[in-house]
Structures are given as C-alpha cells and as structure tokens.
Amino acid sequence: MDHSIQNDFSSLKEHYHLTKDDEKLLLEMRPLIESIMEDFLDGFYKFIWGFGKTANFLKNEEILGRHQGEIRKWYLNLFSGKYDINYFLKLYKIGEIHVQLGLPTHYVNAAFNYVRVFTLERIRKNCIKTDNLEVRLKAIEIILDINLDVLTSSYRQEEIGRYLSLSSIEKKLLGFLKKASSYFNYLLAGALVLVAVFAICLFGFDVFLLFTKQIAFEKGILTVLGSLLILWAAIELIHEEMNQLRGGKFAIEAFITLAIAALIRKILIFSLSPSKTTDVVLYGVLVLCLGISYWLMVGKIYQSKK
Ligand code: HEM
Fold first, then answer.
1. pTM flag (> 0.70)
2. 121-148: per-residue pLDDT in tens?
3. With a 6 A CB cut-off, is 101 part of the ligand 1 pocket?
4. Cβ–ligand 1 contact at 201 (below 6 Å)
5. Residues 79 and 143 in one domain
6. Whole-angstrom distance, CA of residue 186 vs CA of residue 180
7. How far is the CA of 135 from the centre of ligand 1 (A)?
8. Which of 70, 107, 247, 251 is exposed most, by the fewest CB atoms within 10 A?
9. Whole domain around residue 102: which residue ranges?
C-alpha cells in the first residue's frame, strides 16, 4: 500500500466530520448492538442471498461460517469507538479480498443498504427516549459511509492500478479501440434497422403476392408467416444492440434466433413442394443443430445467473 492511501485514511475522519463525541456515542451503543446481533446476521444473509450469485462466492458451509464470524466482528467493530490507522487498514484489506474474489462492487453497496436500514431502525426504536437520538443516528451514518468508502476504494484502486500499469502506447491504443468499437456499434445498429426495413418490405411483398394470386393461397399464407418471423427476429436483434449501446452485454443467441427464423421460413415454403423433400430434411437438421446451440447457450447463461 502506498503512502497516499495512508494519508487518505488519516483525512477520512476529517472529511466525514467524525468527532470525538461521535466516537464516544458509537461506543455507548455497542451493548445494544451486541443484543441485536443474531437478528442482524439473520437478516444480512437473507438479504444478500437475494442477489442471485451469492452462492458462487459463499460456496460452502465452511466459507459461509467463516464469513458470518467475520461479519459479526466487523459489525461490532463499527461500534468500537476506536478508528485508527489499523482499523482502516483492516477495512482496506477486506475490500481487497472482495476484489480478488471478483465480488461485484454492487453487492457490497447493496449489502450496506441493509446494514444502514436495519441499524438505524433498531437504534431509533431502542433509543427513542434518549435526547440525543438524532446525533446517534448521524454518528452511525458517518461510520457506515466511511466504511463503504474504504471498502470500495480497493475497487477503485484496482481499476486505477490496471489503467496506470499500461504504457502510454497501450493507453492510446485502448482509447482508439474504445472509440472505434463505439462507432462500429452505431454502424451495426443502423444496419440492423435496415434489415428490419427489408423484412417489412419482404412481408409487404409476400402479402402483395398473396393478394394478386401470383402464389397459391396456402403457400402464400405460410410465406407471409415466415417473413413475419424474420421481422420479429430482426426486432429482437435491434433490442440486443440497444442493450449493448446502453452498456449491457450483447446476447449472441439473438443471431441464432434470426437464423432459425430464416430457416423455418424456408421450411414453411418448401414443405408444400413435393420435389424439395431432401431440402426440407436438410433445413430441419440445421434448425435442430441451431436449436441445440441455442439451448446450450441459454442454459449456460441461466446457470451463470443462478
Ligand atoms: C457489508 C458488506 C460486507 C462486509 C462488511 C464483508 C466483510 C468481509 C470480511 C471481514 C471478510 C474477511 C476478510 C479477511 O479474511 O480478512 C470477508 C470475506 C469474504 N466476503 Fe465479505 N463482506 C461483505 C459483503 C459480502 C458479500 C455481499 C459477499 C458475497 C455475496 C461476500 C463474500 C465474501 C467472501 C466469499 C469472502 C471470503 C471468505 C473466506 O474464504 O474466508 N462478502 N468479507
């Protein structure tokens, strides 16, 4: 850890206006915190279990048990009244461990929301008769904010560290690639809109053929249905691209959906012509393969979300 981080720690109390009186009040509340500890822990794990991927981190009973012990200590230490450099170094280390585990910073932020709401509510209830209730609540807010600041500073340091370790050419290249990829994304979005427009034209053309009786009625209906399917898949692709432009991930399975839609359209059309039986079978096999790929991909994504 470098010197500037240590300096940051010593100015933290100053920046958050944590006074000696606040420290004394926090220590005074410690017995009360001990008495509500079990409720706190119960609620904490129920709360973080709702994050979805919690089980990927707290993988087994042993790790969970260890974490419960650590959280118990951490929560009690919030009310130790002694917030020196060792206290902050320990907090920083906790943050670093979370970073190394790849724990999303959002999980820590959200967990803090539980800690804040639970603690303030319990103190309000139990200290309603004390004349300095508001000062107590303010002291809790301050120590929680300081904790969150230090715990998440490891995340910021990691990001900054990763960026600073790049050479100037690498940084320039990174900047250039970022810009280029965002331009290409807009280009792709434009091309997808064009595909959707073509799909609408195809739909219009199929309807036209049906109404002008240039195509048998049965075949006409199936063709129209096929072009609608393609239009729907193209719209799905545009949705995915919009997601990516908003900063999300592009779901590659949308492309598979489009390919399946196009093949189904072919099958619908060919199924009426007896001479194209082998084509229909071939297209069927292709749809099956794409279907299996789609299923594998979506299954994997679903599993990683669990
Ligand atoms: C208020 C928020 C949190 C606090 C204060 C906290 C605190 C801690 C502490 C004190 C440790 C032990 C660090 C050490 O070994 O020195 C730890 C480790 C760990 N934390 Fe957290 N944590 C929080 C949120 C979470 C969440 C939300 C998850 C998972 C979803 C999580 C997963 C872990 C894991 C997997 C470890 C390593 C456990 C081990 O192998 O010993 N933490 N955390």
1. no
2. 999 999 888 888 999 999 999 999 999 9
3. yes
4. no
5. yes
6. 10
7. 29
8. 247
9. 3-165
